[in-house]
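Deliverable D4.2, example record:
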Amino acid sequence: MNLIDGFRTIAPSIPYIINGIWVTLEIALFASIIGFVVGTILSLCKIGRNKLLNGFARGYTSIFRGTPLIMQLALAYFAIPQLLGINTVNAFIVAVITFGLNSGAYMSEIIRSGINAVDKGQFEAASALGVRYWPMMKDIILPQAIKNILPAMMNEFITLTKESAIVSTISVTDMMRRSQIVSAQYYTYFPPMFIAFILYWLVVMILTFLGGRLERRLARSD
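Output generated by the structure prediction step:
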């Protein structure tokens, strides 16, 4: 089968592969939300004075940043359920949670750097007014820090979108997995995988463009 015939053969399955975009974006979106929440908590623990929480946050970050994401996914989907005697798990939920927890480790460093970049005078002014630590962080410092790190957060979302392709290893039907299914169905690999390849590239280019627009808008608002 030549290349042109290969594309003609899989043509009816192209919409099936394209629809995998929504699965990919859902994983990236939900994982980003979890990552932001976890990252915020970890960053506050890292800059806080409680040594126990500080050590926990740094240990968490070390583990998730120091091990392969695909290994974390395999542990969450195959090993931990077997250890706990769980027979069936939802692959999509496992993927979202694993990616979210992994993203939290990276987000914690991004948010921590954003907090450290806030003018120290803001801390001093809030303290002088008698604002307690946690209300100060929630109402004064974090909003300013998040504005400064929005481009970095967008980059993290783009990274999650690309890395989500490994969920195909636990049979989540994202674009990568759907291209594999179509390849097996028609016994031809290049056409469906090339289509998925282009779709990933287009999605990332669109997200990169949107991220650039956001960064320029924030720069003008300063």
